[in-house]
Design a protein that fits this description.
This is histidine kinase. This protein folds into two domains: 117 residues; 106 residues, Heat Shock Protein 90 (2-Layer Sandwich). 61% of the residues lie in helices and 16% in strands. It has five helices and five strands. β4 and β5 form a beta hairpin.
């Protein structure tokens, strides 16, 4: 091969090999990203399916239990023995519902890799401790309650707490924040605002609100407004 052609071939090899390597790495990264996105999508679908199944099974048992308790109450004065049998059936439905809950929690634990918690779930009365934790990080937090507090279902309390917790976690770059609980007829509104940079809300906050039949909106990426039914 003439020296010129040899030199050109060598130069092309030197130039093109790194380029080819960069393209290969880019394609591998893209493939990994697409694979992760597909996996995340499948996990989201599976999680929704599990939640739906849990809702349907438990709702059935609770409906049977409620009907049984109502029937037992109505027949208590007329036929105590029959009422006792009816209440026993309602009790058994309650046990089955609890068993299904424990089974589905086990499934979710295997799915997420997070074991079921044995500690009490946080409630609205635990919000002051959460805000104190945020203050210890240097964030100035103001807490306001508007309206008269009303009884709240445990699931609503937990979701409200988690929404505040996630919103404050996202405000790590802020200097001050305001947490407001607004009590309205049939609803609890949770509003968290801060002076940090704009950001997208976490998916779990929207999911928590939606699962309860509530809504969650944002404004300017610096405020979170959730409206949750009380029970």
């Amino acid at each position: 091969m003439p020296p010129l052609l040899t030199w050109l071939a060598t130069a092309a090899t030197v130039v093109l090999c790194p380029v080819a390597l960069l393209l290969l790495r880019s394609r591998l990264r893209l493939a990994a990203t697409l694979s992760s996105e597909r996996l995340a999508a499948r996990e989201t679908v599976e999680r929704a399916r599990i939640i739906q199944e849990l809702h349907e099974v438990v709702a059935h048992h609770v409906s049977v239990m409620t009907l049984g308790v109502g029937a037992g109450r109505m027949t208590m004065e007329k036929n105590a023995l029959r009422a006792t049998d009816t209440l026993k059936e309602a009790e058994e439905s309650g046990r089955q519902a609890l068993g299904e809950l424990q089974r589905m929690l086990g499934v979710l634990s295997a799915f997420t890799g997070v074991p079921p918690s044995r500690t009490p779930q946080p409630r609205l009365t635990d919000l002051p401790d959460l805000l104190d934790d945020a203050r210890r990080t240097g964030l100035r937090v103001e807490f306001v309650q508007d309206g008269r507090a009303a009884p709240v279902a445990p699931g609503v309390e937990l979701s409200a707490y988690r929404i505040v917790q996630e919103a404050l976690s996202g405000a790590s770059s802020a200097t001050c924040a305001r947490v407001t609980l607004r009590w309205r007829p049939g609803f609890l509104e949770v509003l968290v605002t801060d002076d940090g940079p704009s950001r997208a809300p976490g998916l779990s906050m929207r999911e928590r609100a939606a699962l309860l039949g509530g809504t969650l909106t944002t404004a300017d990426g610096r405020s979170v407004h959730a409206s949750l039914p009380l029970g």
